[in-house]
Amino acid sequence: MTDNLPRPHRRSGVRRRVKALPPWSLLAAGVLAGGLLGGAYGAVKPPVYSATAYVVAVPTEKSDPATALGFAQAYGRVATQLAVLGDAQVWAGVPVRTLRSSVRTATSPDAPMVAITATSTRADTAADMANAVSRALTRHAEDSQATTDVELQQFARAVTPAEPSSASWTVTGLVGASAGGLLGGLALLVRPKGDRQEDGRPAAVPGPAVAADAHGAL
Q1: Cα–Cα–Cα angle for 186, 187, 188, nearest 5°?
Q2: pLDDT in tens, 113-162
Q3: Do 71 and 137 meet the contact criterion of CB atoms below 8 Å apart?
Q4: What is the C-alpha separation between 60 and 145, in angstroms, rounded?
Q5: pTM (2 decimals)?
């Protein structure tokens, strides 16, 4: 038989060593663990690129700027529908489900313009998807121009991004360190009350001589 210590003794020894650590060690451990995890996530995750194309609604002679502004808002919602994405997939070279999950549009309440942004792990694919959707949208608007009296024109093509739009490993590491420090602070606050008292100084207890003097004075 081996002379191993009983498990309760081992656990009590571990607890004593943990309690002997200074309170700030929880914060340091949280910051270190969060920074390592965040940095590793940013280094392992593939970079994401974003490209944006712009189209503008122009009123015809039978229309006015207010009407063009209203149709620009409508075209911004139509751009991500199947009727447009079905045509865009031919030029983008990706399936419709990829366009639906990777393409977003934005409009302005002050300008009749639609921004079409596509994201991808490849820079050239992101630009191709944004340009394909803008091309399909302008053709869709051209088919209904006789009834809307608004012409949708391409304002700016999407260019291949030179740098990724996703956060770098340095940024994710800083975010992870902040989150880890926050969790460490919360763990420090919710520690059992007994542990907090043991970390501080022991309560002062009057010695026998002091107690005897106080009893004789009564």
Answers
A1: 90
A2: 999 999 999 999 999 999 999 999 999 988 888 888 899 999 999 999 98
A3: no
A4: 9
A5: 0.63
